[in-house]
Amino acid sequence: MTDSAAQVTIAKSSGALCLALIMHFSTGLLVPGSGFLAIAVAKGGRAHRRAGMLFVIGMITLGISAAGIALYERRYGSVIGGTFAAYLVFTACTTVRPFAGRHAHAVNVTLRLTGLGLALRMLPRGVTVLNNPTRTIDGVPAAMSLFVGTVALLAAVGDGRLLGAGSITGARRLARHLRRMCFGLFIASGSFFPGQMTFLPEPLRVLPMPGALAISPLIVLLYWMWRVRLRKRLQGMILRAAVETP
């Protein structure tokens, strides 16, 4: 089954669909700012926690609304992308704010299966797109589908390792949180800055500024992986207790 882009707009919609579009649009304006603020401030501090939680709530709302709208439009690739964005930041949040109670293990297993299912859907899709004459579908290149699918597979593997170990501490826990948050911000910034240039201030519309803003979360991610995983420098960070899975 192929995607067919019958794009809807706020002006041409009504009811629940119109509300979903308004929510998606307004949340999309909020998410990049809160995400970049969480990156900029001291890690673990009050400003970081508040900006990070705002980003997580915004990304989950954005991802779910994007998946719902894309399902209505029959753009199934975007359904997968929206679900993956919500999954990524949700599991980033549960890394530092783990579930408690008797259903925690079942929820963690469900999250792992979600990540694995998304990977098994995205990777074959990327291979299929390679056979298209344009090597794109819905404007998404095959290389991006394969890249995001690989990230989803690695995330699912990470979920499995956490379930098996029961807990992670220190640099490993922080690295897991940062990887997922930064990649979630990459998805948001990549969708917003190049795709919604008309809403940007005039100085930011000059190329290659939108592209630089879109990939900047990946650059920040590389820095943090170098600092946290390779150098193991955690000075100046306020760390919570270890993640534990019942």
Tell me the layout of helices and strands.
Elements: H1 15-40, H2 46-73, H3 76-96, H4 104-129, E1 136-137, E2 140-141, H5 142-165, E3 167-168, H6 170-192, H7 209-230, E4 243-244
Antiparallel strand pairs: 1-2, 3-4
Explained architecture:
The structure is a single chain. With 246 residues, the protein is mostly helical. It is built from 7 helices and 4 strands, in the order H-H-H-H-E-E-H-E-H-H-E. The chain has one domain. The strands form 2 sheets. The protein has a two-stranded antiparallel sheet. Helix 4 runs antiparallel to helix 5.
Give a short synopsis of this structure.
69% of the residues lie in helices and 3% in strands. With 246 residues, it is mainly alpha-helical.
Note poorly predicted spans.
1-5, 241-246
Number of strands: 4
Rg measurement, Å = 18 Å
User: How much is the average pLDDT?
Assistant: 81
Please describe the structure with a list of short key phrases separated by commas or semicolons.
two-stranded antiparallel ribbon; 246 residues; disordered N terminus
